[in-house]
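Hello,

Our lab assistant flagged a job as stuck in the queue for most of the afternoon. It eventually completed. Since we weren't sure the result was trustworthy after the delay, we are filing this so someone can double-check. Below is the sequence as submitted and the structure that was eventually returned. Let us know if re-running is recommended.
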Amino acid sequence: MQYMSSRGNSPEVSAAQAIINGIAPDGGLYIPENIPSARAEDFITWAQMPYQGRAEAVLQRYLGGFTPDEIAHCVYGAYNQTNFDHQEIAPLIELSPRMHILELWHGPTSAFKDMALQILPYLLTTSIKKTGESKQIAILVATSGDTGKAALEGFKDVDGTSIVVFYPAEGVSEVQRLQMVTQTGANVNVAGVLGNFDDAQNGVKRIFSNQGFITRLADGGIKMSSANSINWGRLLPQIVYYLSAYADLMHKGLLAYGEKVNIVVPTGNFGNILAAYYAGEMGLPIGRLICAANANNVLTDFINSGVYDRNRPFYKTISPSMDILISSNLERLLAEVSGHDSLQLNDWMKQLAADGRYQVSDAVRDRIQELFWSDSGNDEETIAAIRHTWEQYQYLVDTHTAVALHVYRRYQEKTGDAANAIVVSTASPFKFGSSVAEAILPEAVRRGQDEFSLIRILSEWTGCAVPPGIRDLDKRPVLHDTNTSPEEMQSTVARFLNL
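-- returned structure --
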């Protein structure tokens, strides 16, 4: 299995090299030269396996050149009872008949990013050994909240690596901020960006495309890579949990292979729902991929019109991990559904850089609409969905999962589709405790309470336990207090790396 750039102007590379590079030299994203298949007999076998066995089977299809022992080392190093607080790793919870919640937040940082970022350090260090790479790997990350902490936790004190995380200084929840600025580890660096996530993400992209800076790093014995989902090594592990969820439905006798499921994903940067797309292309029987957006609904408008336009107001919402106007992983989908038409794709990406908008061809738009359905929800609707889910099911959800539930309810109202559904739950409700408390607790109980007091009260009120990674977070010392403008991000990286 080789990997090509979405933009078609870089040589094909091995899986190991794609993981080390993070992004292709031409600025494109690595995609597999072909998508492997999973047949009915595979799902029947997976239905009897634990999560780790399913992960091994899927990764072996994509990681050409990796031995079975190397893949097992990566899988069992990541997905174990030390790192995850649920033996099933990604449990599927029945909310109501034909609607299931896929809980992806049982890792150390209580967010779905752990599903990939616990295994990525193993994939990267294995790739370094396989390729003979001798340089120190500097992991550069832009985060809208959850990726940063998960990457820091995954790469802390990993030999041969250092990590730099940029987050929007005023654009994450207090829990997310404290998780990052209290992070321990001799090789970790954190900085707030004076702007929004798109400013941070664009700053990271500029650094990756600055050949002079890359040469300067190389002269210092450093090679840059990424832990964002632009790195195929981040996206690949996410494919596993969709295939695993379907196998769980089969194991529980809730469907037979071939019955279609709808998959509902709250998304901003498009990586999580793109992983579901790849699972579908492998053979997962998907009805519709339902893209749930918040007030920053650029993806909803694109799916419904074929026009991507980031020239719109940016809203700070109570679902901050979705506060994104430039969805990087959409480029991979465009490459796939256009038949790897790199000329078209390069033209669209140039238009996005120059004008902030592009319009895909009718054929590409129609193909996307066959696969995807999208709608959005505002903060008030998100709060209402949290409250409704608690009152009806006694199930507590965070502000991102609530957007997915709200949008799925709209989908059912508009289409009448009663197929089985998997709704992706991306974070513990306690990562966004004050907003969840607003939906659940009486105003008199909330009045005058700070974020962490609300978390404790919410836990007592609902009987739901606060995850260890959040409990007493406000009592840990702040170790990182750097803030930077978007223009100064490169010099901040240089300073962190002692260049």
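-- support follow-up --
The delay was a queue issue, not a problem with the job. The result is valid. The mean pLDDT is 96. The CA atoms of residues 102 and 424 lie 5 Å apart.
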